[in-house]
Amino acid sequence: MKRHLRLFLRYFAQYTKVRLAYKADFLIAFFSSMAATVLGFGFVLVLFSKIPRLQDWSFNEVMFLYGFSLIPLGFFNVVSWNLYDFGELYIIEGRFDRVLLRPVDTLFQVIFEKFRLESLQEVVTGLAVVTICLRRMHLALGVADYFWFALMVACGAVIYLAVFLILTAVSFWFEDRVGIVPPVFNMLNFGRYPLTIYNVFIQFLLSWIIPFGFASFYPTTHFLGRNTFAVYFHLVPVVAAGFSLLAIVVCNRGVVNYSSTGT
Q1: For the range 96-99, what are the long-range contacts, defined as Cβ-Cβ under 8 Å and sequence gap of 24 or more?
Q2: Residues 18-43: tens digit of each pLDDT
Q3: Dihedral (C-alpha) 45, 46, 51, 52: value to the nearest 10 degrees?
Q4: Partner residues linked to 167 by β-bridges
Q5: How far apart are the first and last CA of the chain?
Q6: Interacting residues of 55 by C-beta distance below 8 A, sequence separation 6+
Q7: Domain ranges in the chain?
Q8: What is the reported pTM?
Q9: Cβ proximity of 70 and 122 under 8 Å
C-alpha cells in the first residue's frame, strides 16, 4: 500500500509537470470544462424560471443536489481518462502488454497513468454551490455531518470508478474501439436530479443496475432532511464496497482472458 501510494504521488507530480508545460493547452481545457459546468447550472436556472418547484423539490434543493453530484464526479473525472479509450489504446493497439511487464498492479497503472487535471474545477465549483445552498436554506451541518459528507463524496467517486471499470473490462472480451462507456457516461446527467421525478423503471435502473443514484441523489437526502430515503443513504457505503469488489473481480478475469496482439 505504501509503495503504491508513493507511486501515485510520483505519477501525479510527473503528469502535472508535463501537463503544465503546455500552459495554453491546459488553460483552454480548463475553461472548456468550466464552460460545460456553467451551462449545466444554466439549464437548472432556466428550468426553474418556468416552474416554481420540480415536483416537491425546491430550487435550492435541486441546486444542492447538482452541486454535490459534481464533487465525486470531479474526483472520478480526474482519473478516468484512460477508461474511455481503453479498448482502442490498450487492447486493439496492444499497449496492455507494456502494462503487464511492469512490477506494479495492472489496474493501478491503467487508472493513474493519465489525469484530467482540469476536472478539479468541478470539485471546487460543487463545494461552492453546496455551501451557498446550505446558507440559503438555513441548514447547518454538525460535526457528524461533515464526516458523512466526506464519506459520501468518497463513496460516490468509488461507485463511478467501479461502474466504469466494469464497463471498461468488457473490452477484454469484445474488442470494440468505441465500447459501451460513452453511452453510459451520458446517463450521469440523470443522477444530477431527484430520482423521484423519473418513472419506476429509471429509478430502479439508476439505483440497482447502474447505481448513479447512490453516488449523487441518495447521499444528499440526509443533508436536506429527506428522512424517507434514510435507508438508502446508509446503504451508500455498502453499494460502493459491493460494486468495487465486483469491479476488481471482473477486471482480474479480463486480464486473465487478455491475449496479446502479437506485434
Answers
A1: 96/258, 96/260, 97/260, 97/261
A2: 888 888 888 898 899 899 898 889 88
A3: 20
A4: none
A5: 33
A6: 194, 196, 197
A7: 2-257
A8: 0.93
A9: yes
